[in-house]
Every structure is written in C-alpha cells, then in structure tokens.
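Much of the work behind modern protein science is quiet bookkeeping, done one molecule at a time. The fold becomes a row of whole numbers, each drawn from a learned catalogue of backbone shapes. The protein below has been through that process, and both of its lines are reproduced in full.
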Amino acid sequence: MSVIDAASVITLYRDGPADGPENMAADECLANEAVRRAGLVIRLYSWKTTTVSLGAFQASHDAHECSALKNLPLVRRPSGGGAIVHGSDVTYAAAIPRHHPWAAQPQLLYDAFHGAMVESLKARGIRARLAFGETAAEEHFFCFDRRSSGDLVVDLEGDALVSRGTKVMGSAQRRRATAVLQHGSLLIHSNKAVGLSGRHAGLCDLQESGVQAPADVDACICTWLHGLSSMLHAKIDEQSHAFIDTEPLGFEDNLRRFGHARWTLRR
C-alpha cells in the first residue's frame, strides 16, 4: 500500500463511555477536527450501555422487527455498513481530509486499520487475516454476519466457517465533501444483553484466541496503534484529554440531531 513520504502525525483521543447520540455527535465533529489539523484523527471510545448502531442507509424497521434487539437503545451512524451491537467491543472513529493522500482510495484506510490489527493478533498467536475476494451481503442486517474484502477474520480448527473465518473486526466509511469518516468495531466478547440472533463471537469467546483478560486486550490495542503508525509512516500524538470533553464545534447541534427520532428513523 502507498504512503506519503513526508513525516506525518496521527492525533489520538481516548474517550470514556458515552451514550449513542453523544458518541455519534462526537464522531461527526471528528471530521471537522481532521480538516482543522490537516491529518488523520482517531477516537477510541466505549458505551455507557449496550446500544445498537444502524448504518446510515439501513432501514429502521429492520431493527424494530428484530426480536433480539428488544428494548435496546438505537442510534444511526453517519457512516454506512450493517448494524452493530456495541458494549462488548472496542469502537473507533477515524477522520481524514478528503484531499489527503491516505484518503485517495477507500480501501487504503480499511487495509491500514485492519492490517495493523492482523499483525497485532498474530503476535499473540491468533490466526487472523484479511478476508479476500468477498462482497458484503447487504441482506444481512448485522455487520458481523456480512463479509467484505478487507474484513478481519480469525480461522479456528474445527470451525464450520473455517473457509470464511469468524469476523471479529469490521469498518464502514462515509466519504464527504471535505473529509472521510470511518467507523470500526473490534468484538471482544459476545454481548449477553442481546438475543441469540444478535450475538457474535468476540476474541475472548474464540478457542485458541489467546486474548483472555482486559489487560491483554489493552496491550493488543497498543500494538495495533503502533503498527498503524508504522504502516502509515506517521507519529502518534496522543492527547491528554478526551475529545468529547473539548466541546468540539457543532457538538450540541449534532447531539440534538443524533438524539432525535427524525434522524434515527429517517429510513
């Protein structure tokens, strides 16, 4: 994959738990932050409670008809892709100016983020790889029931899906006039707050995965970020404060939009 020659900086924020509208409002602001900084900005965050995020173009009635999601909060992402059950995952948002070389091709950012995680997992003895030659089946409601080239999958001996692998990380993009916004989710363990049809195995559920404790997951994330910086020939500048605490420009307006049923149920 191509990279820019000049030294660059990846700005990193680590945010604490927030609810769905707060997280989506902050992610929308991240695009403006990337334009302001003229570079890649990443936000790692978690969720106050189990929440379902819909892709920007998904039909909301599909969520309401899914009995596995009964009574769970629902929010609509500004990016595409399938529905994700959050609360037992590591979620990231990344934004970069549209004119930046790393934004030239959609697959470039997918491969960078997923490829770095493959290497982090392999270093822990996990047989991770990128899916190849597959196209997402949009009839599947959940992101982790879909497969696209570049998705991160884990192969397990005796797994009925060994030829396809078990998907543990997926991402989706929204290419806007001024910036590219990418969301991604790494499943850590199955979410017991959702019905069986909405549960998907995470790293800690997979035999031989080698990821058994939260501390190990944290180390895995650190290795992933280091690998990403190496792949992009960039330095990571981790901020000492949470992005959501900076009261980014437009946050309150975004919060009202993402918290309103008009946005969530618009499709």
Observations:
- Confidence is low (pLDDT under 50) at residues 1-7.
